[in-house]
Amino acid sequence: MTMNAPSSRPPLIELRGVTKIYGRGQASMQALRGIDLRIEQGDFVAVMGPSGSGKSTCMNILGCLDSPTAGEYLFEGVEVGALSRDKRALLRRNYLGFVFQGFNLLNRTSALENVELPLIYRGTPASERHEQAYKALEAVGLEAWASHTPGELSGGQQQRVAIARAIVTHPRVLLADEPTGNLDSARSVEIMELLQHFNQELGITVMMVTHEPDMAVYAKRCVHFRDGLVEKDLANGGVV
Amino acid sequence: MLWNTLTLAFREIRRNVMRSFLTILGIVIGVAAVIVMVTLGGGATAQVTDQIASLGSNLLMVRPGQRMGPGSSSTAPPFSMADVEAISRDITSLAAVAPSLSQSVTAVYGNENWTTTANGSNDQFFQVRNWSLDSGRVFTESELRSGKAVCVIGATVRKELFGAQDPIGSTIRLGKVACQVVGLLESKGQSTMGNDQDDIVVLPLRTVQRRFAGTQDVRLIQVSVRDGISTEKAKEEIETLLRKRRHIAPSEDDNFQVMDMKEIASMLTGTTRILTSLLGAVAAVSLLVGGIGIMNIMLVSVTERTREIGIRLAIGALEHEVLLQFLVEAVVLSSLGGVVGILLALVSSLGLASLLQIPFVFNTSIVLVAFLFSAAVGVVFGFFPARKAAQLDPIEALRHE
Ligand SMILES: Nc1ncnc2c1ncn2[C@@H]1O[C@H](COP(=O)(O)OP(=O)(O)O)[C@@H](O)[C@H]1O
Ligand SMILES: [Mg+2]
Q1: Which of A88, B221, B259, B391 has its CA 20 to 30 A from that of B203?
Q2: Integer Cα distance of A112 and A177 in angstroms
Q3: Which B residues 281-340 touch A at CB under 8 Å?
Q4: In which band, very low, low, confident or very high, does the pLDDT at B192 lie, cut at 50, 70 and 90?
Q5: Is A86 close to B318, i.e. CB distance below 8 A?
Q6: If you count DSSP H runs as helices and E runs as strands, how many of each does chain B have, helices first?
Q7: Which residues of chain A does B396 touch, with a Cβ-Cβ cutoff of 8 Å?
Q8: pLDDT, tens digit, for every residue of B125-138?
Q9: What is the residue extent of each domain of chain B?
Q10: Which pTM does this prediction carry?
Q11: pLDDT for A224 beyond 80
């Protein structure tokens, strides 16, 4: 499957010379040293690299949770790196979905309500909200657990609820930072199959950080980070 | 969105029932204190006003001395009968004029004795005070003129001396004077100052002047103004006349005072007002303390829920949406305190009103004001914690714990 994007259409995501420096003066720490990266619509990218190489920093910038110190971040050709806090929040709300290593569900609310949360901020009417959230839970195979709180679910189930929450709004990009980091390999495979499914069936672009080569093979492309730079950027020949 | 925020707030409050209850206690006490004091104060004022109305709204009291107050036994000269005659002759706007001279006496009948007030006046006294007789008669013209030892007694004096017996025609001893009872006043009950209005013996003025006081003085003139004429106008006429008769130079202040019922009422309710403002201060302090309590608990809540806030922000909540969430929670909390305080206040002021025997006057506006005030406390003291929540960095917040 090749992407023949017409030249008039910009890539979905483009980073140009993005750097990120934490702290000031003597204590400052350069986490990203000039990243150039293009990601086309519909891609499935695995991000790999040693700990501390800047993967999470890069994901936070891509997810508009953080702004680059220098360089440009173009989303569909529009510079978004320097937007205000609220504008970036709107971008997250409308185009992005997140899956975290630690699941990050609201502990005392049901799975269904967790999945509804992004729809609430989008102002979706209550009846549509329940329906859409329920469908998303169905898509991750957890409709039977809709009324359970995260505490009553296993780790793998919690991560599937988190994925349902991320895709319920049909985002352009799903950003997953070590989504299988807390799971055993059988649960990890389930998660990877779900991500692959949403990438193929809904055309959601997926960016995923992982340490495990076994998980990276689900991606179409693999980007290696080292010391705040992109070391290798390889297409994965075959999938599974 | 607002509905969601509200249900969310209620859910958070329910999650920590005990903590929420302790948090709103300050507000509850503050609101309850305000409403109780206003309700009781209103009842007391209504009672005073009622009793003053029973005296007759067209009553004026003329006293020697300047300001009425605790030390009104002043050096100002008393009135004389000539003053009284001049007032009733020259001022046509008056319906009745009753001079008074009072003295404390011990009344004795058979084995019973009772200390009471002997009030020397004339027949118009009953008219001015809006007071009719239960039985018997008022004084005759000749009794008044000659200062005969006859009296009209109040219900309390009758009860103490005669019990259920008919007093009319009996002779009682007032001090050294044997005095025939010719009339019995109908009962008026407690007065505004808390003393018993029925504890009185009315005699002709001249009798009291000669036999008891040994003076020709008149200490008080009570007049009633004709219907349709303003008390202001009558008051001015009396003042002008008395200034002339008492030879007061234009530059000098009056050495007498003409009070209408409005002034008397405001004097009597003055005490209530001082008490009200004192309790108001107490209430304000407890509302302040309650507000600080809410701020404290909201700050704790923001810290406890840092991760939740991070999740909401990551998902795309705007700053003002997070701010609103926590602000609504604070306002719901404080308004809840307001509602509980209002209920507590209504129950306790009903109880206290019946205990203190004052009417229960429900004041809708103070209940409304107290509620709005408690909500406002939530806004003011919830704002800082809510802003703190809204300004959290999503990445840091997600990493919390
Ligand atoms: N908030 C921060 N403040 C200071 N330094 C940070 C912060 N976040 C990350 N870093 C530093 O930046 C570097 C890259 O971190 P990170 O992007 O988390 O790496 P990775 O996800 O690849 O393990 C690390 O050396 C880390 O210590
Ligand atoms: Mg990381």
Answers
A1: B259
A2: 23
A3: 307-308, 310-319, 321
A4: low
A5: yes
A6: 13, 10
A7: none
A8: 998 888 889 999 99
A9: 2-51+266-399, 78-245
A10: 0.73
A11: yes
